[in-house]
Amino acid sequence: MPYTPITATLGYVLSPDRSKVLMIHRNARADDQHLGKYNGLGGKMEPGEDIAACMKREILEEAGIVCESMRLRGTLNWPGFGKQGEDWLGFIFVIDTYRGEALVANAEGTLEWVPRDRLMELPMWEGDRHFLPLVFDDDPRPFHGVMPYRDGRMQSWSFTRL
Q1: 11, 115, 131, 134: which could join 93 in a potential S-S bond, CB 3.0 to 4.6 Å?
Q2: 29 located within any domain
Q3: In the chain, how many domains are there?
Q4: In whole angstroms, how far apart are CA 14 and each of 23, 29, 67, 126, 134?
């Protein structure tokens, strides 16, 4: 059977001085799988768009800003992550420069500029604590990870860098 994950983006917008990251506190919808957690911005790729266009669209929709420069930091395969056990394949970006003023909230929650050195203090998915250091480290090579989930819990974590 072919592997057919949901393809998505996850982006971390840096402040102009690179000391803060724009995060969403998922606190707006009671039925949200991510309720109460902090996350980067992003979502599902639509037919007819490439992954970079998807990231730019998601940042514009969720934060009201226009990406001017971004870097692919890695890919993550999340088998079993979805509400019904769906598989997800994510492309992880850092947005280095943008145009406009970020929204303070959207339909999913509150947008907050969080100091980079305080990210690990936030309530987030357990797995995010494993890959976030790779997103922000100085290694220019993208990482490629696998993080299986079962019943909303991370089962394991592995990655390679090439």
Answers
A1: 11
A2: yes
A3: 1
A4: 10, 26, 11, 22, 15
